[in-house]
Description:
Layout: H1 15-33, H2 43-54, H3 60-77, H4 81-87, H5 102-107
Helix pairs in contact: 1-2
Amino acid sequence: xxxxxxxxxxxxxxxxxxxxxxxxxxxxxxxxxxxxxxxxxxxxxxxxxxxxxxxxxxxxxxxxxxxxxxxxxxxxxxxxxxxxxxxxxxxxxxxxxxxxxxxxxxxx
Length: 108
């Protein structure tokens, strides 16, 4: 899981990425418990079994959000290049709907 969380502070989370994170987490839990997909066990049952096996835990999406907030606080207090880039604006615009930005994730 640590490899998965590498540089997660810089990710822009949208619904598709959040869905993929949850799916990857369930795949890891199923593998830890030795559950095959052909066993037809629901995600709720897998979560219950993990909770019984290792106790209460924090899901990966919550960890990613916490790390993003921690990194945001760190960069806003610093005076380095990351802060300059984060506060920069680009002149002009692009066509179409606005993309979800990293900063929008922090506000949520």
